[in-house]
């Protein structure tokens, strides 16, 4: 029975994920879709390179690899706002360098693997730094999904750094053993790393809220006011956010993001994040979930709505997120909260 090389199996799985993302036809998924496509391309090229050892595939493989970290960065930058996307042309430079090195390999034998390692290290560290800035960095992600985006950034950052280490190992293998172990190293690396990175990026894409054309037009003016805020500014920010939540019930929007909240309040996103963190020691996602749970408690006490309806009425996307946040704030499950209060009402004296 013929065996299928591992890179081809990985490529097939990535193509399935790529097609699923395309079929959703969501603009917010564009960067994630491009990244998963790059992962599928790289895995397929690696399989072809080590199966047929063609000069054409030798030329294409490092170029496909160089596309990977840049497309990963752009996927996260899309969630972090336009400022991160301001200079897209910069990301063409390392790719162009690898194209030149790959084209001159037969004549000059430049250290492509070491250059690729530096590229992966650089982007991996940059994405890790982005994740360390906190949940509120990903202002274009749904507030409920912002922690997922942050965790995915950490996973991808570490994975890119590990991929850079693998490129160093490949350079060492070619330098000392004439590439005797390179095929095995590449196969294992692709089998382990590419699906993990692609899945994490896909989760990032799914956490992005649908964009509104009018909101996008206003974004630059809202973010441009980035001067140091005073205590009075922070107090006013908290009052404005509280008013939006209590009067407009903005927390009921399941696609609410920090950027969208900033546009509605006409306050820079960074100032909202700083004000909530200083006053409550929480990120914006946790603060908005506080309002959602308060509303859920009121509905549990004063209506006969099923819990599944309440989950979506107050702005949660999933039952698991709702149950986790409800337990965090009340110390009990929603059904336990309703049953306890019903018992208290029936046992209280007339």
Key terms for this structure?
HTH_AraC; sequence-specific DNA binding; Arc Repressor Mutant, subunit A; 2 domains; mainly alpha; 350 residues; 16 helices; elongated
Rg for CA atoms: 25 Å
Give the helix tally.
16
The biggest beta sheet is recorded as:
none
Spans with pLDDT under 50 lasting ≥5 residues? Answer: 213-221
Order of helices and strands: HHHHHHHHHHHHHHHH
pLDDT averaged over residues: 80
Distance between the termini: 80 Å
Structural class from helices and strands?
Answer: mainly alpha
Percent range for helical residues? over 70%
Q: How many distinct beta strands?
A: 0
Overall tally of structural domains: 2
What would you call the shape?
elongated
Q: Strand percentage, roughly?
A: under 5%
GO molecular function, one term: DNA-binding transcription factor activity
InterPro entries: Homeodomain-like_sf (IPR009057), HTH_AraC (IPR018060), HTH_AraC-typ_CS (IPR018062)
Keywords: DNA-binding, Membrane, Transcription, Transcription regulation, Transmembrane, Transmembrane helix
Domain HTH araC/xylS-type: 235-340
How would you sum up this structure, described in words?
- One of its GO terms (molecular function) is sequence-specific DNA binding.
- It comes from Phyllobacterium salinisoli.
- Keywords: DNA-binding, Membrane, Transcription, Transcription regulation, Transmembrane, Transmembrane helix.
- The protein is mainly alpha-helical and 350 residues long.
- It has helices spanning 6-24, 30-52, 55-80, 92-103, 105-108, 112-132, 146-177, 182-207, 213-224, 231-247, 258-265, 269-280, 284-302, 307-313, 319-330, 334-347.
- The protein folds into 2 domains: 6-207; 233-347, Orthogonal Bundle (Arc Repressor Mutant, subunit A), CATH 1.10.10.60.
- Helices cover 75% and strands 0% of the residues.
- Helix 2 (30-52) runs antiparallel to helix 3, helix 3 packs parallel to helix 6 (112-132) and helix 13 crosses helix 15 (319-330).
- Mean pLDDT is 80; it is low at 213-221.
């Amino acid at each position: 029975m013929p065996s299928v090389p591992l890179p081809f199996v990985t490529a097939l799985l990535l193509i399935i994920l790529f097609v699923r993302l395309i079929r959703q036809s969501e603009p917010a998924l564009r960067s994630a879709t491009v990244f998963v496509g790059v992962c599928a391309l790289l895995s397929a090229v690696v399989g072809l390179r080590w199966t047929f050892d063609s000069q054409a595939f030798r030329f294409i493989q490092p170029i496909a690899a160089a596309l990977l970290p840049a497309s990963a960065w752009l996927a996260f930058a899309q969630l972090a706002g336009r400022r991160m996307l301001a200079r897209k042309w910069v990301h063409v430079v390392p790719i162009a360098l690898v194209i030149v090195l790959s084209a001159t390999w037969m004549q000059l034998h430049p250290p492509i693997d070491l250059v690729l390692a530096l590229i992966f290290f650089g982007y991996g560290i940059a994405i890790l730094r982005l994740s360390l800035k906190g949940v509120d960095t990903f202002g274009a992600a749904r507030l409920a999904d912002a922690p997922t985006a942050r965790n995915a950034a950490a996973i991808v950052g570490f994975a890119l750094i590990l991929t850079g280490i693998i490129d160093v190992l490949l350079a060492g293998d070619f330098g000392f053993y004439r590439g005797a172990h390179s095929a095995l190293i590449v196969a294992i690396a692709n089998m382990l790393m590419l699906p993990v990175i692609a899945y994490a990026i896909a989760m990032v894409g799914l956490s992005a809220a649908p964009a509104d054309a009018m909101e996008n037009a206003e974004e630059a003016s809202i973010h441009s006011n980035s001067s140091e805020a005073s205590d009075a500014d922070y107090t006013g920010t908290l009052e404005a956010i509280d008013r939006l939540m209590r009067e407009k019930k903005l927390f009921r929007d399941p696609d609410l993001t920090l950027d969208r909240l900033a546009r509605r309040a006409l306050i820079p996103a960074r100032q909202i994040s700083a004000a909530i963190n200083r006053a409550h020691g929480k990120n914006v996602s946790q603060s908005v979930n506080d309002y959602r749970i308060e509303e859920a408690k009121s509905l549990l006490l004063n209506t006969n709505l099923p819990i599944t309806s309440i989950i979506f009425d107050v702005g949660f996307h999933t039952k698991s997120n709702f149950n986790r946040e409800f337990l965090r704030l009340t110390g009990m499950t929603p059904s336990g909260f309703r049953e306890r209060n019903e018992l208290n009402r029936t046992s209280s004296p007339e």
